[in-house]
Amino acid sequence: xxxxxxxxxxxxxxxxxxxxxxxxxxxxxxxxxxxxxxxxxxxxxxxxxxxxxxxxxxxxxxxxxxxxxxxxxxxxxxxxxxxxxxxxxxxxxxxxxxxxxxxxxxxxxxxxxxxxxxxxxxxxxxxxxxxxxxxxxxxxxxxxxxxxxxxxxxxxxxxxxxxxxxxxxxxxxxxxxxxxxxxxxxxxxxxxxxxxxxxxxxxxxxxxxxxxxxxxxxxxxxxxxxxxxxxxxxxxxxxxxxxxxxxxxxxxxxxxxxxxxxxxxxxxxxxxxxxxxxxxxxxxxxxxxxxxxxxxxxxxxxxxxxxxxxxxxxxxxxxxxxxx
Amino acid sequence: xxxxxxxxxxxxxxxxxxxxxxxxxxxxxxxxxxxxxxxxxxxxxxxxxxxxxxxxxxxxxxxxxxxxxxxxxxxxxxxxxxxxxxxxxxxxxxxxxxxxxxxxxxxxxxxxxxxxxxxxxxxxxxxxxxxxxxxxxxxxxxxxxxxxxxxxxxxxxxxxxxxxxxxxxxxxxxxxxxxxxxxxxxxxxxxxxxxxxxxxxxxxxxxxxxxxxxxxxxxxxxxxxxxxxxxxxxxxxxxxxxxxxxxxxxxxxxxxxxxxxxxxxxxxxxxxxxxxxxxxxxxxxxxxxxxxxxxxxxxxxxxxxxxxxxxxxxxxxxxxxxxxxxxxx
Lengths: 324, 329
Hints:
The complex is a heterodimer of chains A (about 325) and B (about 325).
Chain A: H1 5-30, H2 46-53, E1 60-62, H3 68-74, H4 78-85, H5 118-133, E2 139-144, H6 151-163, E3 167-173, E4 176-177, E5 180-181, H7 190-196, E6 200-205, H8 209-224, E7 230-235, H9 253-261, H10 264-274, H11 279-301, H12 308-312
Parallel strand pairs in A: 1-2, 2-3, 3-7, 6-7
Antiparallel strand pairs in A: 4-5
Helix pairs in contact in A: 1-2, 1-3, 1-10, 1-11, 2-3, 2-8, 4-11, 5-6
Chain B: E1 2-5, H1 6-20, E2 24-28, H2 44-48, E3 53-55, H3 60-72, E4 76-80, H4 91-104, E5 114-119, H5 134-138, E6 144-146, H6 151-163, E7 168-173, E8 180-183, E9 196-199, E10 204-208, H7 212-224, E11 230-234, E12 237-239, H8 243-253, E13 256-263, H9 268-280, E14 289-293, H10 302-308, H11 312-324
Parallel strand pairs in B: 2-3, 2-4, 4-5, 5-7, 6-7, 10-11, 10-13, 13-14
Antiparallel strand pairs in B: 1-8, 6-12, 9-11
Helix pairs in contact in B: 1-6, 3-4, 7-11, 8-9
């Protein structure tokens, strides 16, 4: 399978949007315009871009604390995204959740998640709902390799395989569990886990968006056709610390340099150039992404702070409001 | 009106809710083919099919989390956690995901799910199959907590819990499952947060919920012979709880006793005592008194569990303490 040029161009644009958004978030955080913690996924853009490219609007995804890429690749409203992370009233979650809880139910984005492994059972339940309704949609659980050590992982892999649920478990394997290397965390591998649960397994070089997209389509086709869940492992690189401000003293300098040398945008750029896309066009795509980010940040900066009383009144729902 | 067992009333509520709404689905360990460890879900799989009534592996964390994900995707799941003690495994899904999703996503979604779970001692089931942990959940913003005391309430409250857009913890005392009460064939939902005066009285207000309500009525009967008029209030729902009804009653009687099976420290009784003291202190003739289990794991042996469980005698004693209290010099 190969991808047509329009798809390759689109994947590049999605990655540019994620990259420029997160670079901007990093600067806003450094400038004190973002409260709390910020977990960036710089270097990992190819995975959300490639996976979400294979999904439809009614497919659902559940994400992680490093979830900006998943949100934007699924099509999250950019103004609401920035305003939320900046804690503003016009944020998608009215400033109540922040970076690790950005969500947009109307596009099937069931939220970033502050709990490692939290995405697993949420996506599993969403897949179960798709199965019961036979609506043809599937669910995706994004998680990092750190979540492989969580107990819920076993329960969810077992249940998904047992019930043949329409779910893809996307492991973004960046080799780091917060501040600890995988060698200190895990006695097995995702491939071996998939075997243990009689689950289909696929893997991709998570730095190459075209490969991720092609493999994702295979996974989605399998799952949508009813052949049960797939564990999809993407090898990727975490450039930044666990969160912004983490100086990564625990990381070998050469290891970090190697990680940062593997840039999904450079690989995609070279690929597009080979397909005849001009440097000028690539530059224009980049400037468009920056302009969109600038506009969203400008809008967020103009938004007011959320009102405490309305937040307090929003603890309980008064009516059901879900996108089934 | 027909004599109905507590368990059968819950079964009817589940069946009627499933009949009325095709998005109501049941999930739990041994609930489908075996019909539930206490027989509560018997016959529902045969009636509604294996897709809507589903036996799960022993995976409390996953099934509670699945309920949240399914609720966010348009279903109304009702999960059974076999014993309340096992809720510990489901805490992340309930506390971090279900309770917060509506709020932290800015009202974009609701989480209409119910977790049914049995609590309570009396079966010599020991420290890990007998606990009353409802206060934990009442402490978490975003959750509702219901504890019915009789079949009619169990039916009406469960219908409301399933219809509610918020996650509801529905707690069933194990010793009540075989108890009987009258249930209307066309019984309706009972709003969550409305308490019920089960016995009108004028001397002291006795507040309780769940199976302990029966001990309270027995205690009130006993004291009636001594010309003490006890007003018994069944809270039915502890989050939210009916502050208006309890406050009005205490303003009338001037005295308050709260009784529950859960251990006393940091419990539901403490919350009610504090709130009512703040609201009605001027009308109170004695301090609020609490009755609860001893602060210890639920013990196994018959004599030990009998010593542990608060009953009619302890409640009578607390009522008498309240009635006889005198301000010391």
